[in-house]
Amino acid sequence: MVGVLAVGMIALAGCGGEPAAPSSAAAGPASSAAAPAPTPASPTSAAPVATPAAAEVVAYTVAQPKTLLGRAPATEAGIKEQGAKVGNAWGAESGRTTVSGAYGTTGKKNVMLFAASTADIRDPSAFLDDVAAQGFAKYRFRPVDAGARGAGRCADATAGATPTTLCLWADEYATGIIYFFFGAAADADRLLPQARAEIEVDKNK
Q1: E strand or H helix at 125, and its extent?
Q2: Is 168 helix (H, G, I), strand (E, B) or coil?
Q3: Is residue 48 part of a domain?
Q4: What is the number of domains present in the chain?
Q5: How confident is the model at residue 204 (pLDDT cuts 50, 70, 90)?
Q6: pLDDT at residue 205 in the model
Q7: Residue 164 lies in a domain
Q8: What angle do CA 79, 81, 87 make, to 5 degrees?
Q9: Does the pLDDT at position 28 exceed 80?
Q10: Tell me, what's the pLDDT at 27?
Q11: pTM of structure
Q12: In a domain, 115, yes or no
């Protein structure tokens, strides 16, 4: 079963949480929709686990990085608006950690949007497959390396002149979405693990 968390993510597909693909002009985003941004309705807090090599407890949370893949936070009104749209649509239960952000510029063609929340997911791979199939059936997701833990999926979400790749990740601690625009869209499979590692961080560090 998809569960409450996935149901919330799937529901956003029809709730106006779709960011517009940014145009290359400095004026801001174009009007064409890039992709629906899923939202966890009720993620739970991260559960600590003991590392096998040491008894110390390791637990992860999500945080808004100062930069994302070297990109500074967006300053263009249109890009910031799209980032806020993704973040507002993401949603989470009271007491859960939720973050979002917009980075890069249309001038440099390096825009990225993301949202993420802490979560408690027993089977990350099955979870993402359910979300992709039930909430984003028009996209063809492929399994990708999400990094040290969990699972990742990416799909071409281009809906206009701006190349766009939509990526999802999930593990037992958190779940999130990242939109890669322009040149990064073609390299999203490689960029996802690093971007995710900058958003989902060890609480003890």
Answers
A1: helix 124-135
A2: strand
A3: yes
A4: 1
A5: confident
A6: 79
A7: yes
A8: 105
A9: no
A10: 36
A11: 0.78
A12: yes
